[in-house]
Amino acid sequence: xxxxxxxxxxxxxxxxxxxxxxxxxxxxxxxxxxxxxxxxxxxxxxxxxxxxxxxxxxxxxxxxxxxxxxxxxxxxxxxxxxxxxxxxxxxxxxxxxxxxxxxxxxxxxxxxxxxxxxxxxxxxxxxxxxxxxxxxxxxxxxxxxxxxxxxxxxxxxxxxxxxxxxxxxxxxxxxxxxx
Length: 179
Ligand code: IMP
Ligand code: MG
Description:
This protein is α/β, with parallel strands linked by helices.
């Protein structure tokens, strides 16, 4: 384990098993369709590529970015779209892939963003959910794991742009972000 981590919360094997399940869920739900899968950068990037390889659905891949955190562990308030999509989502079935639903602000912002752009449907797949932190009511349609209120890193999630490439999900030591 990385020395900045307190403990591993979700192992590589547990992640792989859940990602396969989520992939099968998408296969059932979008059989015969050609949805557009949207990766909300950067935190979802690792999950996104594993998830899409675990489904048999034909999907278009697209990417966008929303900023709310900066380099801190506390949400800075209303999320902003900082990188727009390559394609139009008008009339399309959107699969939004999220790393974690925390306060819920990003999800609320993105659901209305896709609605304004005329998407036919929006299905949210989230790797993680921290229900105890919710500020605005919103939920993913499929959640892989619920986690307690730790600051977590790995499998795409960062602290100050580090730890994204850890193959597991771990709680970060308080001493790392409180110094
Ligand atoms: P929101 O508060 O639900 O809008 O979540 C916004 C974003 O905060 C997520 O997409 C993550 O990128 C980030 N985030 C929330 N909790 C954590 C965490 O424990 N570790 C790393 N990033 C987090
Ligand atoms: Mg982040």
